[in-house]
Amino acid sequence: MSMKYQAVILAAGRGSRLSEKTGEMPKALLPIGPRTLSDQTQTTFLRRQIEVLADLGVDDIVVVVGYLRKQIIADFAKWDSPATLVVNPTPQIETSGSLHSFQFAVRSDNNVLDGSKQTLLLDADIVYHRDVLARLIDAPEQTTILVCSRTVNDNEEVLVYGTVEQPRYLGKGLTPRLVGGVPCLGEATGIVKIAPRDHLLAREITDWMLGDPTAPEGTLPFKGFGPARRATEHEELTGRLMLLGKMTSLCFDDLPFMEVDSAAEYATLRSVFYPQLLKMEKPE
C-alpha cells in the first residue's frame, strides 16, 4: 500500500428489490454465513466488508446509514470495528440516491475527499474475494473503477465500456450503438477508487449534480443541476469522471464477486457462492 486509504461504505438504502428480506431489517445486516471456516460466528454484508478492509490495512472507514439505521447502530456497537457511522437523515430514504449518501459522508467531519488519502467508495451489498480489493489497494494512485470481466448480459448489470486505460461509459441496457461500438470491459463492481488529485473535482461534481446544501435555499445551485438531483446514484459521479478522462479501470475475471439484488440471488449467495468463497480464502 502506498498512500494511505479511507473507505466510504454506502449502507443507507432500502434494498427494495429484496423487500421480502429487508422489510424489517436493513440489507447491510442480512446474514451471509460464517466469518471464516475456522470462526463460525455469523457475519453480514456490512461486517464482512469492514473486516476485509481492516485486514487489508484500511482502518479509516466511514459507513453511511439511513434506512432502519437504529438496527445498524445497535449491531455495530457489538463489533470491534474501526469504522465511523454517518447518518443520511432523509425521511423518505427512497428519494435519496447513493450519491446523496456519499455527499453526507463528504460533508461530515471525517475528512472525506480532503486530498489527504486515497478514497475507496463501496456499495454495501456486494461480496467478493478479499484479493479483489487487495489488487485495487495495491494499484497505482489514480482514480480507478474496479470491473469484473464476467457478465451474464441480463440488463440488470451496470456494464463498463471502453478500454482498460480509458473506460468511457457505464450503465444498464446499453447497446453497441449507444456506446459507439467500443468494447465491454465487464460489470462495475460498485467499488471505485478516487485519487487525491481528483478529490476537489469529485466534490464539485457531486454538489453540481445533487445541489450544494450551503447555497442559498431555493436557488439553482441549492437544487442541483443533475436530472435526478438527490436521487442520483454514485455511478453518475463515476461516469462524469470518465467523461473528463480522469478514470482508469482495473479488471479481473479469476476471483469471485457477487452483487445481491433479489431473493434468488441471496439464496444462491448463502448456499453456493459464499461457502465456495470461504474455501478459496485462507482460513483465519
Structure in words:
- This protein is α/β, with parallel strands linked by helices.
- It is about 30% helix and about 25% strand.
- It has a domain at about 5-145 and about 190-245: Spore Coat Polysaccharide Biosynthesis Protein SpsA, Chain A (Alpha-Beta Complex).
- It has 9 helices and 13 strands.
- The strands form 3 sheets. Strands 1, 4, 5, 6, 8, 9, 10, 11 and 12 form a 9-stranded mixed sheet that branches. Strands 2-3 form a two-stranded antiparallel sheet. A two-stranded antiparallel sheet has the order 7-13.
- α4 (about 100-105) packs across α6 and α4 (about 100-105) crosses α8.
- About 45% of the residues are buried.
How are the SSEs placed, and which strands pair?
Elements: E1 5-11, H1 19-22, E2 31-34, E3 42-44, H2 45-55, E4 61-65, H3 69-76, E5 83-87, H4 98-106, E6 118-123, E7 126-128, H5 130-138, E8 144-148, E9 159-162, E10 167-171, E11 184-194, H6 199-210, H7 220-223, H8 234-243, E12 248-252, E13 257-259, H9 263-280
Parallel strand pairs: 1-4, 1-6, 4-5, 8-12
Antiparallel strand pairs: 2-3, 6-11, 7-13, 8-11, 9-10, 9-11
Helix pairs in contact: 4-6, 4-8
Overall geometry: globular
Low-confidence runs of at least 5 consecutive residues: none
In helices, the fraction of residues equals: 25-40%
- CATH fold field value of one domain: Spore Coat Polysaccharide Biosynthesis Protein SpsA, Chain A
Contiguous helical run count: 9
- Percent range for β-strand residues: 15-25%
- Series of secondary-structure elements, N-terminal to C-terminal: EHEEHEHEHEEHEEEEHHHEEH
Mean pLDDT: 94
Structural class: alpha/beta
Oligomer: single chain
Radius of gyration: 18 Å
CATH architecture designation of one domain: Alpha-Beta Complex
CATH superfamily of one domain: Spore Coat Polysaccharide Biosynthesis Protein SpsA, Chain A
> Distance between termini?
22 Å
Instruction: Specify the biggest β-sheet.
Output: 9 strands, mixed
Which CATH class of one domain is shown? Answer: Alpha Beta
